[in-house]
Structures are given as C-alpha cells and as structure tokens.
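Continued from yesterday's entry.
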Amino acid sequence: MQRFSFPRFKYLRIALYMCFAIVAAKFISLTLLSEPLLNRIADTQYHDDLDLAPHRGSIYDRRHFPLAISVRRPSLAINPRVFKPSPEQTQKLKQLLNLSDKRIAKIRTKESYFAWIKRKIEPTVAAKVLALQIKGLYSINEPFRYYPLAERFAHLVGYVGLDNTGLLGLEQRYENQLHGQHTDLTLIRDARNQPVFYLPAQAQPEQSGHDLTLTLDHVIQEISMEELAAGIVNAEAQKGFVIVSDPHTGQILAMANYPTFDPNRPRFIATANIRNTAATSLYEPGSIIKPLIVAQALELGLTRADTLHDCENGEMEVGNTSIKDDHPHLVLDTADTLTYSSNICIYKIALLLGAERLYELYHAFGLTSDINSLDIPGQVSGRISFHQQWTPLRFANVSFGQGFATTGIELINAYNVIANGGKLLRPYLLAKISDDRGNVIHTQNPQVVRQVLRPEIARQMRFLLGRVIQHGTGKLADPQPYSAGGKTSTAEIYDRERKRYSQTDRIAGFIGFAPLADPHITVYVSLHRPRNKPYYGGKWAAPVFANISRRVLDYLSVKKVLADVPQSEVLNPPSEALYPPPPATQNSPATAPPTVISRGN
C-alpha cells in the first residue's frame, strides 16, 4: 500500500489548519462582532411592532345626528413569498377586487413578507375573497370613516385618507382632537409564522378620539342643499352656496356648497369640487352692502327714511366716468333707495358719512375682520384699502359694494346685526368637544363683540328691508305665509385679464331674515355666474331664499304671521331718540317734513 510522502502530508495538514482558522474567525465574527446585526435580523423575522390605530372620534350635529363615524372594514394583505394563487383563483381575485394583471404580477414579485392588495373593502367582498382559500392571503380589520349624509356636509366636515388622517374641512382642522392616541404592541411569531403576544401587559385599552358637536342642523342643511341645487339648475349657474345662521346666537345652522362630492369615495373626488366657497372665497358683495350704509346714516341722524335724494335720472358723473342705476328714477327717499337699490342715491347717502366713517362702518359690522373665524381650513377675511387711498370713483364704488372683497360668513354676520337688535356677535360652528366617556372638555357660547346699532334703528332697518320684498327688487323672496326682509344683489365679477368688469359674469345674491318682526333665521344665497338672463339676484337667488326660509321655519315650528310692513314702522321713530331734531327747526322728528339733501354736482 502506497504511503503519503512527508511533504504532501505537511501541505494537507496546513490546509486543514487554515480551514479551522477560517471557521474559528467566522464564529468569532458572528458571535462577538455581529451580535447587534443578528439581533436585528431575528427581530425582523420573529418580532413585530404593531401601531394600532385608535377609534376616531365622531362628529355630530346639534341634535346629535352623526355626520362622521368610525367603523371597521376588512383590508386584504398577502405574504408575497407564499402568495401563489392558481390561474382560476387569480381570475376570480381580479374580478372581485377589480385588479389588473399588472397589479397582480407586481405584488407576486415583491421580495418582502408583507404587501397590501386592497384596503378597506366591503365585508361581503372580503368574505368572497377569503372563501377562495388562497395561501398567503390574509384579512386585517382597519378603521374606516363613514359619512351618513355623504354629499350634504362634504365641504364642511371634510374626509380622511387611507391612514385615517383628516385631509379636508373639520376632519383636518380638529385632527389632534379626533384622532386619539395610538397603541404600540410587541408580538413574536411562532415556527408557523403565527402572531403570539410577547408583552401582554402592554395591551392597554386604546384611547379613542374626542367627539365634536356642531351647531349645524342636518335637516336645515338638507333643505339648503336641495334648494341650492335646484336654484343652480334653474339659473344654469356655475356654482353657489347657502349659509343659514341664528341671528341671536351667531350659530351657523347650515353651510351648503354646490357642486359637491362624496367623502365616502375619496379616490373619486374632483379637485374642482372641494372648495368651501362660503368660507374660503373672496368676492365683491355688490348691493348687499347698501343697507349697512343706510343703517349707519340713520344711526348718526344724517338722514331719515323719508329724506329725498336726487337720483339724476339714473346716471351721474363721478370723476372721469359715470355711475348708473338699473332702474332710473328722478327722486327717491331713503326708504325707496333700498327698495329699488339705487346706486346713485346710496352714493349720496355715503357722501354724508364721508370716506373715513364709511371705512369704519364696514369694520364695525365685522367685514374684513378675523372675528368671523370658524376654524375652517383655508378660511379668509375680507380686504379693503385704506380710505386715504380712495379716489372719488373708488369711494362711489365702495358705497355700493365694488372695489373691496368680503366673504359669505362676514356678510351674513353683518346682517345678523340688523336681525338681532344691533349686536355684532362672534359666529361659531363648534358647540362642544367631548371625550370618549361623554365628559365635555370644551364648550362655546354666544359672544357679543360690540353694539353697532341702537335697537330701534335695527328694528326700523328690518322693516325697511321688508319693503324690498313687498314692493321692490326682492318680490320673489317672499316666503309666504311668513314675512321677511332682505336685499338683492347682482355683483359684477372683475376680469383680471382684461382689467375691467365682465359684461356677462355676475354673482346673483340675496340675503335676508325671517320672520320680519322677530327673526329666527338669517339666510344668504349666492349663485355664481348664472347663464340664464337676466342675471339679477332678485330673479335667481331670491326664490331660493323664499323656499329655504319657508321650509326651515316650518321645521322650527315658528308661528305663521303674515303682515304687511306698517308705514309707521318705516317712517316714524319707535322712540324719540331715533332721530336727533334738526338744529334749525323746532318740529318733532316724527312730523319734520321730508327734504331733498342733494342734487348732484
């Protein structure tokens, strides 16, 4: 038998020693130097940290009707390394979940141990998918936000994303209050990759989010949405909004925008439809502003309801241009200035105030002020230039609602001053916040900012605006069998490209309150860019106001009192302090003869 020679045995022994040395070095490296890495690998394979989403708080209207609630819906996930459906299973899976071949192929080629295949689906669909018994496919229950009235409150309440985080409206603004506190758990997996809790002491009850109770009323909101949608169709308008407020508290009872969207289907929401125009858009108010000027002039004793004004037969030169009336008159008193919405006469009343007092009265009524904040994401405040910068033409424009911008919230709150007896209130939308046990942790109550008008002036203004509906431009706003007062508006839209007001684009508006003597609601209707002529607010917005007011007052069980506006309430003061007596006469304010205060330049 042949034996190994000494040199060959020596080389074999050296090779064996080297192998042992390499194994020893690798062992030392793995056990001593790479322990953190190995622990991370083991943790990845056998340990999971779960971030359990809490129950999101609900949103209710003032009658505790749910506007946004949280439920659980199944989401389907797979382990791509195990997921190997048969062709028949793949075909049925595609049909049930509406998946493409590309999507299935992409999921199957993932190298991870987890991938979502479809999240937050209908339970019936999930049951059918699980019945296919595809290996590596699992169901996980996730929080799902449901909006019972869907499109009715979409712009205001908003919606959440797949991660249950608010993306729009009050869902976004009150995210911290609604979301609640996450629960972090550690679990391990057994040899069959099944989860087993590792530290059960960590499994504490989740801390649910807080509930919001709003001042909104879902019935009033539905009425507003229905009538607004019908009004937009009739006028062939581009969009519009309605705001309904309680004039005595400042509570917002409804805020409807159209067109709308379905927050239960966030993937199909058109970006153009998500804007809350009532709170986040600025526009020129138009003739809606005129009653505020008359009210302030009456408050200061600068005019009377029966004071006559030269209307210049419907056209008057101011600066290098002219201002016109749609309904020309030779002479109108202050009351009929509102009834027929004369630009020229309201300008002459504004001249009595002067630029500084005109500027200040808009602030006094809360226009261009942050007191109207409702905590709506994207809400803006109105803008007006300093009165020192006004040219004579700009002064005239500002007096009848052009040359400055406001919001719907600001305007309806200004009209609340007339409706409630002269007080400017801070409007609000959130009534209270409650924890998951029902304990109230925050509440909001009516707040008076200032007294703008004396009660007798506010009352006289209500009856002056009642004449607008009974005898003037707002006849179609009559909500019989109830009485009402209000003002029409047909605001021109400024064309920034051509640097002039559009010849066709208008905002048809009507704002008012009902019933006349003791208003329960204030309603503002705004229709943007109606295409049916004439574009007047008295034609298109006024009927929407009438229908909403009638239906809402019926719903609130308000007593039906239909009465003509008494002439005494318009012309005669309710108290001797209504009009300061003219210094040059001893006649009483009630019997002082009407006078023509101006006849142009």
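--- second protein ---
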Amino acid sequence: MPQMRFGQKAKNPKATGSRLFKLVVGKHKLSFTVVLVSIAVSSLCSVRLSLFLQELIDGYILPMTQSGVNDFNALQQALVHLAWILLAGTIAGYLVQRMMVAISMDTLRDIRSEMFRHMEKLPLSFFDTHAHGKLMSTFTNDTDTLQMMITQSITQIITSVFTITFVLVSMLALSWILTIVVLLFIALIFWLTKKLGDKSSVNFKGQQKELATINGFIEEMIGGQKVVKVFNHEEASKQAFDQMNENLRKNADKANSFANVMGPVTNNVGNLQYVAVTIIGAAMALIPGMHFSIGGLAAFLQLTRSIHNPIGQVAQQMNNVLLALAGAERIFTLLDEKPEEDDGYVTLANVNVAEDGTITESKEQTGHWAWKHPHKADGSVTYTPLKGDIQLEHVSFGYTPGKLVLHDISLYAKPGQKIAFVGATGAGKTTITNLLNRFYDIQDGKIRFDGINIQKIKKSDLRRSLGMVLQDTHLFSGTIAENIRFGKPDATDEEVIQAAKLAGAHEFIMMHPQGYQTRLTGDGEGLSQGQRQLLSIARAAVNNPPVMVLDEATSSIDTYTESIVQQGMDRLMAGRTVFVIAHRLSTVQNSQAIMVLDHGRIIERGTHEDLLRQKGVYWQLYTGSTELS
C-alpha cells in the first residue's frame, strides 16, 4: 500500500461534502450516472479477467493435459470472449476518465466564476480584514485540490469500492475459508497503517509548522536585504536560518521515517498473506473433500493481488479528499460572506434642462445629470440637479462596535469648493472619504449629497458621481488607454485623450512609440511613480465627476514631480467640489476650508490665513514646530 499523507482537515467535512456533492453531481446527474455504470462495467471486467484463470486452467489446460486431446477451438472461443471483456473494460475506463475530466473542468469553471462574481459584491471592509494572499490561495490552491479530487480521487475511490465488493463476492464464491484469511491480514494491515500513521501525522504537523516558519523568515530576509546589509546582520541571519533549517530537518526526518517505513511494512504483510493463502489453498486443493481446484487457487491468488491496490488507493485518496474538503470549506466560506448591502433607491439619470429650469429625463447622453428620487408615499418622482453639495451632520463612526474613529463630525462643502483635511496618521482623514463613498456606513448622524441622505442613494450611482485619486496607484495589465478608460468604460478615444491632457499625462504618453496603445504590465512597470499618478488622475478625470477625493495623492513622489502632478490635479479640481488629504501643507493652502483632525475630532477649521492667525496646531505644523506622523 502507498504511504498516507496528512494535511489540514475541514472543520465540518460532512456538511462541506454534502454541499460539494450537490454542486458536482446536481448539475451533472446524467454524466455522473454514465460514470457510475462505466465504473461498474470496468470493475466487473477486471474481476472477470481474474476469474478467467480458473476457467482457463480447470476447463482447458488440465483437461487437455489429462486426456491428451488438444481442443484449441474451444480455447480460441474462450480467448475471443476474453478479448471482448478486455475491449468492454477499456471502453468503460475511457468513458470514466473522459467524462470525469469534463465534469471537473465544468465544475471548476462554475466555482471560479461564482467566487469572482461574489467577490465583486463584497464590501471593502472584507478586503481590509482579509489577507490578499489567502484569497489568492483560495482561487488557486483550493480549486486545484478540488480538481484533483473530482478528476482522480472520486473516480479511484468509487472504482476501488466497486472492485473490492466484486472481488470479495468472487472470493467468497471460490472459498470462504481463504476469504477469512485475507480479511484477517487486511485488518492487520489497517492496524499497522493506523499506528504508523498516527506517529507520522504528529511529526508531519511539526514539519509543516517549521516549514511555515522558515518560509516566512526567507520572505522577510529577501524583502529586507538592504536593512540586513546596512546593519551587517548577515552572520546573525545565517545562524538564525541554520537553526530553523535544523529544526525542519529533525521534524521532516521523523515524519518521513514513519511514513516511508509504512510502505515496506504493509507490502511485506501483503506478501505474507500471499504465502499463507498459497499454502492453505494448495492444501485445500490436494484434499479431495474440500472441492477446491488448482484453477480456483490461481484465480483466488490473482484476486488477492487485485484487492490490495484498491484498498491502498482508498487510503491514499481519502487524504486527498480531506485536503480537498478543507479547500472546499474555504471556498464556501468565501461564497457565504455577506455581500455588500445596498438599499438605495435614488439613482443618477441623464436629463434635459429647459430654459425655465424644468428637468426631464432623457434616454440620450446629454451631459447633464440629476438625482432621480422616487417617492413611495404618492408614487411621484422628483429630479435634483447633480451639483456636488456635500454636508456631514454630526457624523460618528467606528470600524468595530464600541470603538469610534470619528466623533461628531460636521462640515459642508459647497459646489466648487476645495476642502482639505490635515492631521496625524490615524486622525480619521481617510475614514471620512470612505464614508463619502459608502465603503462603510456611519453609526450616527447624516451625510447629504445635494440635500439627499446618501443612505437613500444607490451605491453604484453614488460612486459614479465621485472621483478618487489615491496615494497608492494601481494600474491594470492592458493598454494605457484601457487603464484611463477604467474610469468610464464607454469613454471615446477623444474623451480618453482629453482626460490625459487635463491630467498632464498626454506628453509622456506620446513619447512611447505606441502612444495610448502602449501595453502596461506589473502595475505600470517601467513608468515612474509620477507618471503612474498622472494616469491615475486621468482615470478619475475621464468620468468628469462633480466631486473629487484626493487621498495623499502626492505624498510618495519628489518635489519636482509633485509640481507636475499638482498642475494636473489643479486642472482636474477646477469647478468641482474637492476633498483633499495631504501631508504636504503646500498642496492645501488654496483650500476654501482646512480641517485639522486629531483622534477623530475636528479641532481647528478655517482658511490657511485664518489658521495661521490662530497660532494653533496648524500654525505649529506650518512653521515646523510640530510634524505630522
């Protein structure tokens, strides 16, 4: 028997297995029925080949030997019959493999699609609290274990169960005495496997723990090589690694010692069983009253060999099934995550605005937008022009219950105004912008957009009216034009170019031989940080939103590049309501209002000149008496 391996198990394998069974079999009932019938036929053919030995020896070889008459015609017919059995078994085996591959690929396609669609519906808070690496592992490693289970493990287990059943029935038909002998040896093999497996499992867990430790250490050292070399920490790092490596060797040595000895032990027990069956069977064949023939002994010995492989396959594949169930459990956990709720009913609509101010909805692209507000009370619909008037009224919020990050925040931004937030890290600046987008919902207070409570606005429409330029730019694999068009999928080439010019990105884009069709990979590999930021600004500009949020968009670039990016942002901000978060106070001096935040509270507010006259926290920051952290 092959050695068993041990891995992480599902917490609730029964429930996970039941759900997975419905997912796999429920959509492929006919195909799975054909697979089961084909497996049964293949197993019957395999057992029939073993039983043919009895027929061959007792029905043809011994009679011809004893009588001296060679009846080759009968033997030829028997061999033709055997050939048909082989052909039927081969065809059935091919059908099993072909259909299980189709079922597996179809199931994995559906699972990946469902996972990705569901992931797109999850709130931002989910991604803030779950490691991206683990999510990637669910999409790759966990689905791979499912593929292996569906394609190989399920097929082999079902085949093994059919084969074991047919072999045991055939053994009992040949000799119940020898069958008991075989079962006793099988029980002994299982007992030895369990004992050795338990000891191996403990050490395999230790091996996995040490392996995770050493992998984490290597990742840290690769990422921190500059720090290691600056502080001459090479020797200490080597010593720490050698100790971890030695611990891994010890655990792996113990684990694999038990695991590797399992195969020889079980194989030798199997050989002892073969010898015991041969001796007992030969004695039975020589005793006239036992009614046991030489052909029966040959067939029984062949069946004895046939039963060991299926048992070993079940033992091996069950571990793969457990690993796959653990992966399926993580997949179902992702699919069971609560999607982002959206109870908004106020939407954006294209409108025509008459000279008298009358607003009517239009099916054409007019360039004018309004909030379409249906009123449940009387069934009427009103239209509020989209202007970008933002108000926060006594807003309090915390990411976790009982721990507020914002305390009683009130502010307003009229259309076209620039509002700046300054303060130390953790003061609540980015949190305010997250609330404007409804990435999170507030616990208390109200946020109004053009006089409408944003809780009533459909999230997709709310976010369509807001543009964001983040500190950490992210460019997708594709052309420069496609990356800019990400802000407005139906944007024309002219709109893309106009947005790039507005952002100040057109000049460097045209320096590339393929211009806007230049392909980007690796998050804009080959572009400078400033160029990536300009493309991010162009992406926000192409949608032409009335409200812009600039979240520390220039904090990670040098002063010269900042001046270029700042020019693009100034053009982008013109005529819009803008919220700016910045560590560099030079970028917020022209704001209509500057909010100084500290531990989730607005402690100062006013224009740049007003705050300097107050000689408070902002003045200290501006004069260098205090630094942002």
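Residues 1-7 have pLDDT under 50 and may be disordered. The chain is about 60% helix and 15% strand. Will compare against the first tomorrow.
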